[in-house]
Amino acid sequence: MSEIDELPAALETLRRVREDPHRLGHRGHGPQAPILGAGHGVTGPATKRIIVGYGFWLFLLSDIVMFSCFFAAYAVQRGATAAGPTARDIVELPRVAAETTALLLSSYTCGLSFAATNARNRLWTQVFLLATGLLGLAFVGMEVQEFINLGARGITPQRSGYLTAFFGLVGLHGLHVTVGGLWLATMMAQVQVKGFRREIVHRLICFNLFWHALDIVWIGIFTIVYLMGSIA
Amino acid sequence: MSHLEFDPHLYTGELNQREDHAPGDEPEESAGHWILNSNLGLAFSVVLTAAAFWAAQTHLIWGPAVPIALIVLAIAQMGVHIVFFLHVTTGPDNTNNVLALAFGVLVVFLIVFGSIWIMDHLNQNMMPVQELMQMRT
Questions:
Q1: What ipTM was predicted for this assembly?
Q2: Rg (CA), chain B
Q3: Which residue of chain A is at minimal alpha-carbon distance from B77?
Q4: What is the pLDDT of residues B54-65, one digit of tens each?
C-alpha cells in the first residue's frame, strides 16, 4: 500500500488509472516519474512468483497448441486405415476407464500436495506428490502395456496413416506424463533437501500447472480417440 | 456528481485484492480453500467422466447425437479443470491469464478445424483412384 510520503492512495490511484486504464502494466514514456505499481495494484512490478507462473502458463499454452496439431492430424487421418485395423479394433474401454481414473486421481492428489505446500507441511506435500507419481506411473504402465499388446497383434504405427496418427497422439501424451514423472521425482528430492525455499515453491507451482494440463489433454484424447472411436 | 469518467471509489480501499496473480496460484488462502477446490474439481470431473463413458456405451441416446454429447461433456470437464485445478477464473486479477488462454484456444481451433475443413475439401475434390488409373492408360 502507499507510504505516507507518496501521494494519498486515492490520488495515486487516479493517476494510475488514467495512465494505465486497462492495467496492462505499461509505464508512461518519456521523462515522467515512474508510476509506482503501474498495472499491478500498488506494489510495483509483479513478483517473481507471478512472472514465473505466467511464463510457464504461456509455455503450457504453446504445448497445447502442439497437441492440437496432433489432434488435427488424427482427425484428418481417421479414415485412412488402409483396410487395416480401425478405431473399433483398438479401443479397450475398461483399460481406458482405468487410465482415466488413475490420471484424474493423480491430478487430485497433485492439487492436495499444493494445498500442503501452501501450509508449508513437508510431510503431506511429499505424501501427496508420491501418490501423484505412483498414479502417473500406473497410467504410463497401462499405456505401455496397451501399446505392447497392440504391437503383438501387428498393430504398429507403420501399418496405416490412421495408426501413425493414433500412436503419435497417444504416445506424445504418454511421453509428457513420463517426463512429468521425472520432474516430479526431482521436485520431491528438492523439497526434501532444500525445503520450501521461494524458488522451490515456484517450481512446485509450475509442476502443478504442467500436471493438470496433461490431464486436460487426456480428456481430449479419451473423448476423441477412445470413446468416439468405440462408437464409430 | 462526478465529472470523472470512472468511479474512483471503485479502485480504492481494496487494491490488494485486485493485484494480478499467476495461474495455479491465488492470494494467500488457508489450506482448506485449496482442499475444497480440489474436492469440487474431483467431484465434478468424476460425474462428467462417468457421464461420458455412459453416453458412449448406452443405447438410450440417439446414435448421431452421441459424439456431440461426448464433446460437450469433454469441454465441460476441461472448464472444470481450468477453474478448480488451474485456478484460472474470470476475476480482475486473472485478466492476463484469461487473455493468454483465449489466444491459445483461438489457435487450437484454427489448427484443428482449419485442418479438418481443408483436408475434407481436398478429399472431395480429388479424383477417384480408378479414374486416375484410366487417365494414365
A1: 0.77
A2: 24
A3: A219
A4: 999 888 888 889
